[in-house]
Amino acid sequence: PITEPTNAPTTEPTNAPITEPTIAPTTEPTTEPTAAPTHTSRPSYGGGGTIGNSGFSTGGASATATEAPDVSGTASPEQPTSVPTLAPAIGSGLPFTDVNPNDWYYQAVSEIYSLGLMLGESDTMFAPNDTLTRGMFVCILNRLDGANSAAEPIYFDVGLNEYYASAVTWGTKTGVIEGYGDGTFGPNDAVTREQTAAILWRYSKQLGEDVSASADISTFADSGNVSEYAQAAMAWACGKEIISGYEDNTIRPTSDITRAETAVMLIRYKNPER
Questions:
Q1: How far is CA 239 from CA 31, 101, 193, 216, in A?
Q2: Where do runs of H (alpha helix) occur along 42-126?
Q3: What beta strand segments (E) does the chain contain?
Q4: What does the pLDDT look like over 115-164, one tens digit per residue?
Q5: I need a surface site. Which of 77, 184, 224, 237 has the fewest CB within 10 A?
Q6: pTM
């Protein structure tokens, strides 16, 4: 597997989900989390392994199912310069009071929620500008893949009763995502934009999909900030228009990705013709 460097930003959320029942549920808890571990480096994300070639979930998400909140702070919206034209939102509307029809990410959030790939942080809050955590991201990918895995004791900081435990087991065994070298996973650590691109790129490769698309990312003012391990993945993600730049001609590869940006990227990834 390809391993990323460990010198990425060290911003960590302050909270982690509370303990759930003995058998981890398929939906996330709605309660406030307790204190999370702190790490001094980013994890590496490996390739390799085999992922089942299954499709996307098409079941509607329950209005009461929620993601465990990431309460590390509210980020400023980072609207890309180009937003894809998406199909009308599925269903009669969203239950979230913080996602409005005039928001640039509204259609993406509507679709990703309707597909059951992303849920809310509470019954009424999607928290579009909160950063996405590793625990949340591996759950989303696990839902996308459609695979079921029994939780196993792999990392010190991932209890078998945590809502993301089975997804972490799946992600580790398939090589989609790895833990820290100290035996922890860091489920509440934030995910960066280039890490998101790298994980989706490797996931596509493992599914046998065409990853030949490539864009010249040197045109971005901060292209020199793209880590070496993520160069090909970022070029692919830009070539597929999964990731776009910002109005100031930057791509911000090491910035933590927001939940709104994640929704848009996943819809672009799922529907490349858009």
A1: 40, 28, 15, 8
A2: 106-114
A3: 15-16, 34-35
A4: 999 999 999 999 999 999 999 999 999 999 998 888 999 999 999 999 99
A5: 224
A6: 0.66
